[in-house]
TrEMBL record:
Species per Swiss-Prot/TrEMBL record: Mytilus galloprovincialis (Mediterranean mussel)
Alphabetical keyword list: Coiled coil
Coiled coil: 149-176, 244-271, 332-395
Coiled coil recorded as keyword: yes
Name of protein: B box-type domain-containing protein
Length: 413
């Protein structure tokens, strides 16, 4: 809304408020009358719900920017502004979907927390092994020991920081989610936006790369003078079992989401109408595509691990590269065929549309000619009727004059 908008009732003064129930733009003079007659249940927010830029009560919600707006916010003048009450009802209606998403996130976080705990225990055991070997070789390899311990402790600190950050996000989301159902319109929207941002932030975070790795400490040979190289080193092995479990859990979670959406789709077809059913169906198709992609990646990863066990990684990667090149060539050929088919269809549509336009113009011309002929006939008929009317008027006038003459003669007699 801009300052040039006028009141929807009087059309004289500038807009001061936007009715959250009916969406009318009102000036200060028309607001009390509209409140008493049209929207008796209108409610004004406290000063805590004022616009941060203009210090005016917020009255709308910009669907493109996901922000609360007031009547003076010109940045949203070309956007779609909805009344706050309408947005509140829409969000509250779909609140169960947000709850389902957070249930899935909580389940993922619990499994992630368990994995972090087991990894921290493993790293602690590795640290103890390193310290034991360091005590044996204390005089010769003190610097080496400290270096390795610092690496492991750094990984532990990173895991702890990651877990604390995720727990803080979850705590914040739970605190906001618990207040949603009992909150009013204004605090509800602010809490919902905060939960939405927290969810996006959680989904954008990638799992720590150390969870997909397994550190092993290999002690060196005793009674050796080359203690710097023989004390031991940290080796990185991909944790095949854990990664398999993660892939399977990811696929199972997607299958659960697809199943939930199918249930919601059946319910929405009988209760909420075709619009919501279409939205559920679209999201279900997206989830099924994601599930297919994950299964394809899991199969590729399994083939790679089998090749790795046979020490044939290079052969597998070269074959995979050749296969991807062939797939890309096949896709390019498909796109060319589709483009040629589309071009042919466009040409046929152009010809058909040109023919239709030509026929329409010809038909319209024939209709215009017929209308002109009818118009000429009507004009001729009208002129004849006018002539007949004039002659009839003359006859009537003569009859009247004749009657007047007869009347005068009878008077004289």
């Amino acid at each position: 809304m801009s300052n040039n908008d006028t009141c929807a009732l009087c059309e004289l003064y500038g807009v001061v408020y936007l009715c959250e129930y009916c969406g009318l733009k009102l000036c200060g003079a028309c607001l009390p009358d509209h409140q008493n007659k049209s929207c008796s249940d209108i409610w004004f927010a406290s000063s805590s719900c004022n616009c941060a830029l203009h210090d005016i009560i917020v009255s709308g919600y910009c669907s493109e920017c996901s922000e609360l707006t007031c009547v003076e916010c010109e940045d949203h003048s070309k956007h779609v502004i909805l009344p706050v009450k309408v947005v509140h009802n829409n969000i509250k209606r779909d609140l169960h979907l947000v709850k389902d998403d957070f249930d899935i996130i909580c389940g993922k976080l619990n499994s992630y927390d368990k994995l972090c705990t087991s990894k921290m225990k493993e790293l602690s055991l590795i640290k103890q092994q390193i310290e034991y070997e360091g005590n044996k070789w204390m005089y010769h390899i003190l610097r080496k020991k400290q270096y390795l311990v610092s690496i492991v402790e750094g990984k532990i600190d990173q895991l702890q920081d990651n877990c604390q950050e995720l727990e803080l996000l979850l705590t914040t989301a739970k605190a906001c989610f618990s207040n949603l159902e009992n909150s009013d319109v204004w605090t509800f929207l602010k809490s919902w936006l905060k939960i939405k941002n927290t969810k996006e932030e959680f989904e954008s975070m990638e799992p720590c790369s150390y969870l997909l790795q397994k550190l092993k400490f290999r002690p060196g040979v005793e009674d050796s003078f080359d203690v710097s190289s023989l004390f031991g080193n940290l080796t990185v092995d991909i944790n095949q079992d854990n990664e398999k479990v993660e892939f399977k859990e990811d696929i199972e979670s997607y299958e659960e989401e697809v199943e939930k959406l199918s249930i919601h789709l059946q319910e929405s077809q009988g209760e909420t109408g075709p619009q919501k059913a279409t939205a559920y169906k679209k999201k279900g198709i997206e989830l099924q595509d994601g599930l297919k992609e994950r299964r394809r990646r899991y199969a590729k990863w399994t083939d790679y691990m089998n090749a790795r066990e046979k020490d044939q990684q290079k052969v597998f990667l070269s074959q995979l590269k050749i296969k991807e090149e062939k797939d890309n060539i096949y896709k390019c050929e498909q796109l060319k065929d589709e483009n040629s088919a589309i071009a042919q269809e466009l040409d046929s549509l152009k010809k058909e549309s040109h023919q239709k336009v030509t026929n329409m113009l010809r038909n319209h011309k024939d209709e215009v000619d017929s209308f002109q002929k009818q118009n000429q006939d009507l004009q001729h008929r009208l002129s004849r009727k006018q002539d007949e009317l004039k002659s009839l008027k003359a006859v009537v006038n003569s009859v009247i004059e004749l009657k007047k003459g007869n009347a005068k003669s009878s008077v004289y007699v």
